[in-house]
Amino acid sequence: MARLTGHFGAVYVQTHNTGAFVKVADVYDWQFTNDSTLYDVSIKMDFIERWAPSHSSGVKFTAKRRHEGLSVLPFFVADAANNGLQSTWRLDLVDANVGFI
Description:
By secondary structure, the chain is mainly beta. It has one domain (2-95). The chain has one helix and six strands. The radius of gyration is 18 Å and the shape is extended.
């Protein structure tokens, strides 16, 4: 399980009309975890072990958010749940080492 933590960041969602990303929330004290299975992709008779990760599963993102009045986040979640729309989310995060991920 990979676990990343950090101080500050922003959450964006891609709109269906224009394809542009819209800022949903400023966040702080965030944690990002995911599970990924490693598969052995070594070549026979080779001395080097090679591994490749699978797609992530069990992805979880938690963060604290400052109150910003009316939030657009519930609208995007409800819209996806009611209409079966797939949303693309983007996280711009500053990690605990003060680098961007």
